[in-house]
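User: Please fill in residues for this 179-position structure.
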């Protein structure tokens, strides 16, 4: 979006994106996100200040399917977030002849009077997701000897002397079938 498209009253946008767009934005990053269920929705208000900074305020709603880091099962995380982001003109905010301040590390910038509201929405979803995704707070994980899901088999006791070339073969096969 070009900042010249923003009137004095601001601009309202309704953004709806599908799973293909979302997964394309994630790309090859190391994130435990599998997909989104249905489309994500966001309603935002965009305002331009006199100093040419852009204020993006709104909300985003998405049902994100993640993989638990302990048991490797898929689960849903509902993102329902309100946000306010200030995006500064890069040309005015960053000078090649000065040191970066700590406030510069938290700032977002745009160049050539252009910024992408879709990227702002995507970033807000990613900021809402847990860094250590668990299907439930008390997830038991997998048996370190055979790979059995201990949430499904809480009484499981494995022969610790048993040797296996890949104790997680069953879980890996199960994941491959879902892909």
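Assistant: Residues filled in for all 179 positions:
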């Amino acid at each position: 979006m070009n900042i010249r498209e923003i009137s004095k009253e601001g601009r309202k946008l309704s953004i709806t994106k599908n799973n293909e767009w979302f997964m394309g934005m994630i790309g090859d990053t190391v994130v435990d996100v599998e997909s989104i269920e249905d489309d994500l929705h966001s309603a935002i208000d965009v305002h331009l200040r006199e100093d040419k900074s852009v204020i993006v305020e709104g909300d985003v709603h998405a049902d994100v399917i993640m993989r638990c880091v302990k048991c490797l099962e898929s689960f849903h995380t509902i993102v329902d977030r309100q946000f306010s982001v200030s995006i500064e003109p890069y040309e005015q905010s960053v000078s090649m002849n000065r040191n970066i301040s700590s406030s510069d590390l938290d700032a977002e910038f745009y160049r050539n009077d252009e910024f992408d509201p879709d990227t702002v929405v995507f970033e807000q979803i990613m900021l809402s997701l847990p860094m250590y995704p668990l299907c439930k707070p008390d997830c038991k994980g997998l048996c370190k000897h055979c790979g059995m899901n201990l949430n499904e088999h809480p009484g499981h006791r494995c022969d610790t002397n048993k040797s296996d070339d890949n104790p997680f073969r069953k879980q890996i096969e199960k994941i491959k079938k879902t892909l």
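For context: The first helix runs from residue 19 to 26.
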